[in-house]
Specification:
With 333 residues, this protein is mainly beta. It has 2 helices and 18 strands. A 5-stranded antiparallel sheet has the order 8-11-16-13-14, with no helix packed on it. A 5-stranded antiparallel sheet has the order 9-10-17-12-15. It starts with 14 loop residues before the first helix and ends with a strand.
Length: 333
């Protein structure tokens, strides 16, 4: 078998030994050794010879203006590419109602951010209903309707706290305050656990309210038991043309804070009002008036008006109590 024997030449240096020799003589690099020139400055060089160029953001940190609109205008100088450009502090984001131009489009609070939810203005009559709108950097409750001359329609049009002043009015609801007493023949009634949701202080107690009946002796008490409870009161009502308002008094002195507990107002089975045990009025032991626009049903025909509630055993310490009293559909001339 033929082979060629390698022979080391006299005086030749092995490859491995050559590498060591080069390292001892300065690494064999063609670059000159790094000579520190002082602290790092922003120039694209490694001034302090630590192997890093422009490390520590030298010369950076000073405030500056980016020239962009809104919150994107504020910036700071930062060392990038051997220079000190102005870099914005904040990136654009979705607009919120805070008096700032969050999305950097040059317009503050554009699009009414945070607006659209219903609210109560604290004013009287039709001026009470409002909608949140972004104004002055915060959501403000703006009334939906301005006061106008009073007309005979069941509403307080001029927002003075008096309904249909100067009008001659009757009530389309029979036994509106439930004062006819048992068995309340004008009202069909049902309660899963009690037979009827109609109560008096002597029969039912106060339910945690300082005023369980809005007026008189009797009122409707929905819930009040740590079990599934379905209840309703309802009657067929002829609603004349022009009788556009359904009014009643409501309170929720105690609530288990769960949305599954609710009270509906229904006309012909359609829900025209819905409140749950998470409402802000929960825990308030006094009545407030609710006024509903029922003009869609004011056509001179009979309609089934129903107050319907469902409450449940939610495992909460408290149970939900919804109270209703003094129902009216004014018929005014």
């Amino acid at each position: 078998m033929a082979y060629v024997a390698a022979r080391r030449l006299r005086g030749a240096v092995p490859v491995g030994s050559l590498a060591l020799l080069l390292a001892a003589c300065g690494g064999g690099s063609s670059s000159p050794p790094c000579t520190p020139t002082g602290p790092e400055v922003c120039d694209g060089l490694d001034n302090d010879c630590d192997g890093l160029v422009d490390d520590g953001d030298p010369g950076g940190g000073a405030a500056c203006a980016t020239g962009l609109p809104g919150v994107c205008a504020a910036g700071a100088r930062h060392c990038q590419g051997g220079g000190l450009p102005c870099v914005q502090d904040v990136q654009p984001s979705a607009e919120v109602c805070d008096g700032l131009d969050n999305d950097c489009d040059g317009v503050v609070d554009d699009g009414d951010p945070g607006g659209g939810a219903a609210c109560n203005t604290g004013l009287l009559g039709v001026c009470a209903a409002g909608t949140y709108h972004c104004s002055g950097g915060a959501p403000q409750c703006a009334q939906d309707v301005q006061p106008s001359a009073e007309v005979c329609d069941g509403f307080d049009n001029d927002c003075d706290g008096t309904v249909d002043e100067g009008c001659s009015c009757t009530n389309a609801i029979v036994d509106p305050g439930f004062e006819a007493g048992p068995p309340w023949p004008a009202w069909a009634q049902f309660s899963t656990n009690f037979g009827t949701p109609l109560c008096s202080l002597a029969d039912c107690g106060s339910g945690g309210s300082s005023q369980p009946a809005h007026g008189g002796t009797y009122w409707v008490w929905f819930g009040g038991v740590p079990l599934t409870e379905v209840g309703y009161v309802r009657q067929s009502v002829l609603i004349p043309v022009g009788s556009n308002a359904l009014r009643f008094w409501f309170q929720a002195p105690v609530c288990a804070p769960v949305a599954a507990d609710f009270l509906d107002v229904r006309i012909d089975g359609a829900v025209v009002y819905h409140v749950t045990a998470t409402d802000t009025r929960c825990g308030v032991g006094t009545y407030s008036e609710v006024v509903l626009d029922i003009s869609a049903y004011a056509n001179g025909q009979s309609h089934l008006v129903e107050f319907h509630s469902e409450t449940h055993d939610s495992g909460q310490v408290t149970t939900t109590n919804f109270f209703v009293d003094d129902v009216s559909i004014p018929v005014c001339l």
